[in-house]
Specification:
The chain is mainly α and about 80 residues long. It has three helices and no strands. The chain is elongated, with a radius of gyration of 13 Å.
Length: about 80
């Protein structure tokens, strides 16, 4: 059975989606990271724009729905 490349991106997305300390920081950075990961995954399947849209939505939702204590990788790059 062949592994679906999209399923391999989900754990990575969850690990990095909530960078930042505020909800908006985590949603913004999660959306950006998700869009990038989704574009790469989508490109492997021939649909980079669809992958970016789905990855961005999933990353933003994951970032917005997590608390800083759950996953905190520090301040976002734009606040350093």
């Amino acid at each position: 059975m062949k592994a679906n490349p999209k399923l391999l991106l989900i754990p990575a997305l969850l690990l990095v989606a909530s960078c930042g300390t505020s909800t908006s920081d985590r949603a913004l950075s999660g959306g950006a990271i998700g869009a990038g990961a989704g574009a790469v995954g989508g490109a492997l399947l021939g649909a980079p724009l669809a992958g970016a849209a789905l990855g961005g939505a999933a990353g933003a939702a994951t970032g917005a729905l997590t608390r800083p204590g759950q996953i905190d990788l520090g301040k976002p790059v734009w606040e350093r």
